[in-house]
Amino acid sequence: MPHGRLAAAVASLALAALCASRGRRRGRSEARLPLCGGGGPGPRNAFRGDDVRDAPGTSRQPHHWSSRRRLVAAAVAAIALAAVRQVRRGCRWPGRTRSGRGALVAAGASGGATGLKPASPGTVVAAADEDRGAAAAVSPVIYAAIFFSLLGFTMTGPVLPAMRLHFGLSAAQTGLITSAFPLGMFAGVFIFPALSDIVGRKPMLVVSYLGVGLGLGLQAASVRYGLSFGTFLALRTATGAFAGASTVVKAYLADASPPEKLPQVMAYREAAATLSFIVGPVLGGLALAASSLDSILTIECLTSLTAGVLVLLFLREVRPARPSSWQAQSPSSNGQQAPQAPKPSCSATGDPGQRAPLSFGKLWVAIVLTMFVSWSYNVGQSFFDGFFPLLCAERHGLPAPIIGTTQTMMAITVFVATAAFYSRAVARLGLVQTAALGLTLIGAGVAVIGLAGTWSGALFGVLLYAVGIPLFSPSVAAILSRSAPAGRRGLVLGMDSAVNAVGRVAAPALAGRLYEVNPTHAFCLMGSVILLGAAAAHAGRRSLHNTSPQT
């Protein structure tokens, strides 16, 4: 896909957000009846973000809200421009250093440099073609698909209070909205990655994105035509059954990347996802203030369909890795094996001298430990996604646009931390310790948010949470992808996602009951679960070191 098209798409989103923030104030100047029906002061509409207290038939938006929207739109535009610059370099990301095949080409051409016999011309040409394919495999299209697929999902946060009002739900019932999607994902994240090992990554990505888009469209129709809450939950659960793309994407990136570049590629994936968390919440808050709940679900439908079309038309397929994928055979008639290149370094920094991989049986010890660590994070994240907007609205009295602004600023912090600190943290601490540090910050942040009685204290917890995410998420993805046996990567990642789905289903439903009794206790409990995972990662660091890309 030409870089100009992708850059134009990202820039268009930034421009749309900017225009929405500027046009919002203009649109509010039109006449509208006050909510209480008289000429006197009217009540405040917490979800639409306006204050109906002016002359009869008019409403005026507070000036500081317009300023905040312009500030957020400017931040979105700046982040989008930075992302465009990174995307334009995207074709060089996985190929900046020589992979094993590239080393084979160099060794075959020079011969004496490695002490090996020069490879035959056919082997060198085949390896060169294979190396060029690997370098071009991680296309910017996959990062664009990640962005669009998550854009609709991230728009849901600011509108959860509106959904609760629309259906007349309690706090525990509101948690069911957050749990329904992961309940369907339990099947999707296991079946889709396992099938991708057989039929390929691209077909399963297309089916997943298009299926989720269709399901979101049906959810929008259920809200528009006033169907029951049970029908909405059933449609949301069915939509989640198609949501296996996030796991297939990890397998795709692991197949397309040399092992030494895997942590960096996973960090780029995290940056693409974070960009959607920057645009999504503010776009969701603005869309809710300007339109209706079903319109937001329709927008979510269109973003997922866009991701599916991008993958279908522009993404190149990459075959799943096999145990012999880093070796080349000589096509000579005598059938002798060509000289093998040295195995690529497994270090995130490219340094040699790594430990040899463990045997298959011992690998599963590290895999199970990594799954538990990942599960603890997903339990806490699911609770945070479902109940942080409610805490903002109920304890701190924030309307939807301000909640969306807060989530956008949090995502900007994640994006900046990914770009500025992640590589340095991995180089200094190692991949496993970086993941443990990030999970510790996340758990502490969730607990602080629950304990804080003021908005400034809650913002400190949000800062801890936002700094911890970019340290943990790409690290644990790289550890698990590197630990997975060749040819079974989709299956292992699918098992991990299925285990995480169990936590994402149970956490909001169970913690929702505790939240109704005492929100502080609910947040502290989830923070403790996350910190338990961080302690497990630190305690098992020796096993994880031996299977991770970092010593």
Automatic annotation (TrEMBL):
Q: Residue limits of the Major facilitator superfamily (MFS) profile domain?
A: 138-545
Keywords from the named record: Membrane, Signal, Transmembrane, Transmembrane helix, Transport
Q: Which SUPFAM superfamilies match?
A: MFS general substrate transporter
Q: A Gene Ontology MF term for this entry? A: transmembrane transporter activity
Question: This protein's superkingdom?
Answer: Eukaryota
Q: Where in the cell is it found?
A: Membrane
Any single GO CC term annotated in Swiss-Prot or TrEMBL for this entry: membrane
Where is this chain primarily localised?
A: membrane
PANTHER family recorded: MAJOR FACILITATOR SUPERFAMILY (MFS) PROFILE DOMAIN-CONTAINING PROTEIN (PTHR23504:SF15), MAJOR FACILITATOR SUPERFAMILY DOMAIN-CONTAINING PROTEIN 10 (PTHR23504)
- Name-wise, this protein is Major facilitator superfamily (MFS) profile domain-containing protein
Q: Which organism is it from?
A: Alexandrium monilatum
